[in-house]
Design goal:
single chain; 427 residues; mainly beta; 3 domains; six-stranded antiparallel β-sheet; 1 helix; 28 strands; elongated
Length: 427
């Protein structure tokens, strides 16, 4: 099975012998653990079928109260990775006799370019998928200044009235204050600048031809107003520098599945392919041109059907024709084996157990689609503390998982009937 493909699998984590009774807890010792592991056991109504797809889906974003978590994909045509949506950062899968651990990968779809937002690349820092709406509320124009290299020069001041193209103009003038042929240029800023086009490019070319007396409107196609010297001698070389324009962005993210929403307050830079310090979507770089106030861009995110292979479980047990899956994941441990990102100070994780007889990857699939997840509809993911050595059991859940869910279509090999999870500290 190639790494990176979502081949399907539910993870069962092997429980160590001698587990205490349901709900028991013990305080960790003073010595910090070398590893924090997650032991999972999942039992189905019939023997595990290696041709089916079993997932132990994890959400590590540590949102307060478990606002979002992993939920099953129920139907097309919006099918994501074919099995899970909501908020998933990692998953352990079992399929074709193999357990593997993956990190989810999220795809972007700029459905409505607007406001000067013309592209989006990268992957969100959080494992949630859903819909973003972004509006340019206001634009702070970049400051424009003039620097005299050799003088006195023809320009004594510059005001940015509407320009969003950051960069440096080099203007060489004669004693009469006229441009010198070949002495006028514009160098776009690496971030915030763009090659001039249209009327702006024509204006620049006319100045560079030479013999043009500089005036207040000589760079008006760039949104700049010049202050021209009245002195008799105006020869020299000068730079006009325009800093990047920055737009204030507001918006909202609506998570798929839960429908929870959160407000966005951020900034973008005009004519940029570099993320600002306060990007609208952390982890995603927006490509912009000149910004436009009041327009609303829409970006949709969803899980890719390709994920990043991380590792194999710390321990696992082949079902051997039985109805139980078992495996152990390292939440915190050596670099390269742990799931949680450093520094590992999270309090909780959300998880769901999702099984299906086939991945829903064809948007034209007529159905029905059979699957199971925790709870009556499969959407009752569980939030557990990872700061205490403790066993969590199905019977302790708000809505314990039972047999004969209507979503399984009677396929007992994907019908989850019981689960047990232990957070365990290894020293």
């Amino acid at each position: 099975m190639p790494h990176g493909r979502l081949v399907g699998a539910l993870v069962l984590v092997s429980l160590a012998a001698g587990l205490c009774l349901s709900g028991c807890a013990r305080s960790p010792e003073d010595r910090p653990p070398s590893r924090v592991v997650l032991d999972v056991i999942v039992r189905f109504a019939a023997p595990v079928n290696d041709a089916y797809f079993y997932f132990f889906a994890i959400d590590t974003d540590d949102d307060e109260g478990g606002l979002d978590g992993p939920i099953p994909v129920t139907s097309g045509p919006y099918i994501a990775n074919g099995w899970g949506t909501g908020s998933i950062t990692h998953f352990l899968e079992y399929n074709l006799g193999l357990y593997q651990i993956f990190r989810t990968r999220i795809e972007l779809d700029l459905r409505t370019p607007a406001g000067g937002i013309v592209g989006a690349t990268g992957s969100p820092d959080v494992g949630k998928v859903g819909d973003y709406t972004l509006t340019i509320d206001s634009i702070s124009l970049g400051t424009a200044t003039v620097t005299t290299i050799t003088g006195p020069g023809a320009i004594t001041g510059v005001t940015n009235l509407s320009g969003q193209n950051a960069g440096t103009f080099r203007l060489t003038t004669s004693a009469a204050g006229e441009t010198v042929a070949g002495g006028v240029s514009f160098t776009p800023a690496a971030d915030g600048g763009a090659a001039p086009s249209g009327a702006a490019a024509q204006q620049l070319a006319a100045l560079n031809a030479g013999g043009v007396a500089l005036a207040a409107d000589s760079l008006d196609e760039f949104g700049l107003q010049l202050t021209i010297s009245a002195a008799a001698e105006r020869s020299g070389e000068q730079d006009v520098v325009v800093l990047p324009a920055v737009g204030q962005v507001s918006g909202r993210f609506v998570a798929r599945g839960s429908g929870s929403s959160s407000a966005i307050s951020a900034t973008v830079t005009a004519n940029s392919r570099v993320a600002t310090a306060t990007p609208p979507i952390p982890g995603i770089t927006l490509e912009t041109q000149a910004l436009v106030v009041g327009q609303q861009a829409r970006i949709r995110t969803d899980f890719s059907d390709v994920a990043d292979f991380l590792n194999y479980p710390f321990d696992s047990v082949d079902p051997g024709g039985g109805s139980v899956l078992r495996a152990t994941l390292v939440l915190l441990g050596e670099p390269g084996e742990q799931i949680l990102p450093p520094p590992g100070d999270q309090e909780t994780i959300n998880f769901n157990i999702i099984a299906t007889d086939e991945l829903l990857l064809d948007p034209n699939f007529p159905g029905p689609h059979y699957y199971d997840g925790l709870g009556f509809s499969g959407n009752d993911y569980v939030t557990i503390s990872i700061k205490e050595d403790r066993i969590f059991r199905n019977i302790d859940a708000v809505e314990p998982e039972e047999a004969d869910d209507t979503t399984t279509g009677g396929i007992q090999a994907i019908d989850v009937v019981d689960w047990t999870i232990q957070v365990r500290f290894l020293r």
